Amino acid sequence: MSAVEHSDTTAWIGTLRAARSRGRLRLVAIMSALVVLGVLATLMTGPTLTTPGQLLRIFSGHDVPGASFAVTELRLPRATLSVLTGMSFGLGGVIFQTLLRNPLASPDIIGISAGASAAAVFAIVILGWSGAAVSVTAVIAGLGIALLIYLLAWRDRVSGARLILVGIGLAAMLDSLIAYVLSRAPSWTLQDALRWLTGSVNGATLDEALPLMLALLVLGGLLLARRGNLEAMRLGDDTAAALGVPLARDKVIAVMAAVGLIAVATAVSGPIAFVAFLSGPIAKRIAGPGRSPLIPAALVGALLVLIGDYTGQHLLAGRFPVGVVTGALGAPYLIYLIIRSNRTGRET
Amino acid sequence: MSSAAGTATLDGLRRSRRGRAAWLAVVLLGLALACILSVSLGTRDVGWADIVAGVSGTTETMAQAVVAVRVPRTVLAALAGAALGLAGAVMQGVTRNPLADPGILGVNAGAAMAVVIGMAWFGMQSLDAFLWTAILGAGIAACFVYAVGSLGRGGATPLKLALAGAATSIASASFTVAIILPRNDIAGGVRSWQIGGVGGASFDAILPCLPFLAVGLVLCLLSARSLNLLALGDEAAAGLGAQVAWARAAAALGAVLLCGATTAICGPIGFVGLVVPHMCRLLVGVDHRWLLPFSALTGGILLIVADVIGRIIARPSEMDVGIVTAFVGAPVFIWIVRQRRVRDL
Q1: SS3 of B267, please?
Q2: Which residues cross the membrane (chain B) (predicted)?
């Protein structure tokens, strides 16, 4: 290979890289725009339609009769919380799917969400707590369950398969616990109970969003800072170690950050079914191979919750919590997995 | 796997007939004891005289009436437990998968969703209708989970089946919630039925299920021989003259009938089908001709005892039997997972 050709190839790779990073930026920009659109739709739609002009006036401090209260007190917290929980679930889910290298191994299936919800339900129903105390309990329980799953899966070393199965077993037990605690609370209405079984952003307040925002900034930032190492881990432990990734430390950090995100979000909104499960695969599909799916997954999560909530509130007959809508999306996804794998014969 | 199973089969066949007969006596005794416990223990304490009177049908005093209520409840727990235990053993044989259980694999959740759909959209009220829908739902869920679980390389591994079952359970639970949420009229009934209970049992409710349970039982027990062959691997089984596909289908149909009928009366109850066959394998080995009847008997005992525990533990109210079995069963599930080598998962 001559020197000229060589420099040509380098230049070619350089242009490819530049095109790829441009494509990546464009993708993130498009998805962010979609999230903003979703937020606007949530802010505008209600029993009465608020126009963008009215929205602008409300947010610049004017009082618009008949719309101000609905927008600032009801719809803004709802939209904020949808975005924040969606991003947390999406990010936490894709971390687990990456580390366990299995698209079905999301925290809502392997018991992390169940642990956080069980603790939150217990704190709210039996202990009568609320606010930050519930969040802290959920985080501690989420971490505790994650540790328990890890210890129970330990035999010589931890295998991903055993970890997932132990998690499924624990999840079944925790779901029973949640059902029992809810059945013990006579004043608990069906609506409230369902919030803890499927997840919803009904009755959101901006105060609730604060811990979630903090968690997302700190833990999400931590994860994003290490996304190169996480990408390397997708290639397998041996390859990642060979590439110089400090495996043990990075795995612990990633798992703890992901559990923290899932638990805080669960404490606020309940376990919104399947957002963590669906975000990662969708994001990978959109972003294509070879790109870190973290930011796309967070955005997809936010979009899923926004769209699910909007659908449940305004598009269906009757009002459904968002978790019901996103949970129902899981079934077509599983069918899609069957069809795709039948066509390509690929590993799922 | 198949060679290990083969050695284990031989080992099982070597176990003495006398040893098994002794275990049979123990299990039957245990069943009788569990029935006595179930009739005599509960939220309200009753004396022996009342128990005898209540069982024989007298309901003059409060205590006697309480006992009379406990009798059908005990019968239902025994039948449901037997059906689930047997179904679990058959499913583990058919899928050659130690983690198969109607609860884990999402079959019960499918049956439950079908019943709720029937209640909400088709105005079903009668137990007969519930039975047919539940069996249909169980069958669809079983096929769906098996299809998702056998995707990709390596076919239906325990890991993939369990994941597919868990995901299917969550999805069908969401559909179920979506259906009952706008329908306050049926919500309460569905909720209590969903957690899984034998509390509201009556002989009138048990009677229509009996034909289904009987057909399922016969199908399952008749499959014992072919399940033994299937344990050797599909090729070996075919070589020994088994109609592999038919044997599988017949056994699976029997298991689905049992699960569906049980779910229609009691709601979804998990983990009985998982725990019981493993216990029985320790007692009588892996020969399905012994394992299946033993699983049925032990399943009955387990569910009766779980029901009694649920009555005692949460006095003065009761804990649903489905919650008790989850708390007993999940640790066993984890224990089985820990026993396995990674390769087999």
Answers
A1: coil
A2: 21-41, 71-91, 103-123, 129-149, 161-181, 201-222, 252-278, 290-313, 319-337
- Whether residue B328 is predicted with pLDDT greater than 60 in this model: the reply is yes
Question: What CATH superfamily classification does A3-344 receive?
Answer: ABC transporter involved in vitamin B12 uptake, BtuC (1.10.3470.10)
Distance (Å) from the alpha carbon of B340 to chain A's nearest alpha carbon? 9
Predicted local distance difference test score (pLDDT) of residue A339: 66
Query: Would you call B319 an interface residue with chain A, using a CB distance cutoff of 8 Å?
Result: yes
Q: What is the pLDDT of residues A13-23, one digit of tens each?
A: 888 777 777 77
What's the structural domain count of chain B?
A: 1
Chain B positions in Cβ-Cβ contact with residue A155 (cut-off 8 Å): 338
- Asked if B320 has any chain A CB less than 8 Å from its own CB, the reply is yes
Q: Which domain does B110 fall in, by range?
A: 2-344
Task: Write down the ipTM of this complex.
Answer: 0.80
Q: Is the peptide bond before A103 cis (omega within 30 degrees of 0)?
A: no
pLDDT above 90 as % of chain A = 18
B127-141 pLDDT, tens digit each: 778 888 999 999 999
CA distances (Å), A172 to each of A110, B103, B121, B326, in order?
A: 9, 9, 29, 7
SS percent in chain A: helix, strand, coil, step 5: 75, 0, 20
**Helix (H) or strand (E) segment spanning residue A197:** helix A190-198
What is the rounded CA–CA span in Å between residue A80 and residue A74? 10
Which CATH number goes with the domain that contains B184? 1.10.3470.10
Q: Cβ of B117 under 8 Å from any chain A Cβ?
A: no
The 10s digit of each residue's pLDDT in A189-230 is 555 666 667 778 877 788 888 888 998 999 999 998 888 888
Q: Do B338 and A152 touch (CB under 8 A)?
A: yes
Give the Cα separation of B67 and B55 in Å (integer): 7
Mean pLDDT confidence for A288-311:
88
